[in-house]
Automatic annotation (TrEMBL):
Keyword annotations: Oxidoreductase
Domain Flavin reductase like per the UniProt entry, residue ranges: 42-184
Signal peptide location: none
Species for this entry: Deinococcus radiodurans (strain ATCC 13939 / DSM 20539 / JCM 16871 / CCUG 27074 / LMG 4051 / NBRC 15346 / NCIMB 9279 / VKM B-1422 / R1)
InterPro entries: Flavin_Rdtase-like_dom, NADH-dep_flavin_reductase, Split_barrel_FMN-bd
Protein name per the record: Oxidoreductase, putative
GO molecular function, one term: FMN binding
Alphabetical list of Pfam families matching this protein: Flavin_Reduct (PF01613)
Location of region: Disordered: 1-32
Amino acid sequence: MTRPLARPGKRRGPGGKLPGMTHSPDADAHSGITPLEFRQTLGRFASGVTIITAQDGEQRRGMTASAFVSVSLTPPLVLVSVDRRAHMHGLLAEPEVTHFGVNVLGANQRHLSDHFAGRPGPEESVPWFMHESVPLLGGTIAQLVCRKEQVIAAGDHTLYMGFVEYSRYTDDDPLLYFRGQYHELG
């Protein structure tokens, strides 16, 4: 059973805040919260872990991303949010990069998340394979090949919407990310 935090018309705490909620005097004047507060708040949302992959000339590239979402079943659309400072941002922005891969990590693939989040291990430990011209990661619990459909500027990130042309999945358990740490089901 869930309860609303505050019923419409009920008095909230000082400044209209819910009791127990925090607010920083350093908050952005437009949003009311600091980037750190926003990050910590969003960290309470458990998510799966994905590796976004694309071909960069002769090189295969990947980036760990938890900001991934399905958009539509018909047509099959997904969206990934990429920080503008990330190498993957520049790569996906290239007109000749028409496709990207989405690889959903399994519970035993924490090392791949670390590898593509800037803490690389040996390159030979990455189980690359190609599906047509898109690099994917072997052993992941789900894989998608997406045709880049739309690019949307959104603050300090860019949203890349993709039309899913290929997918496969297993019934293995996912790797989860919550409060800045990896978790497994169960």
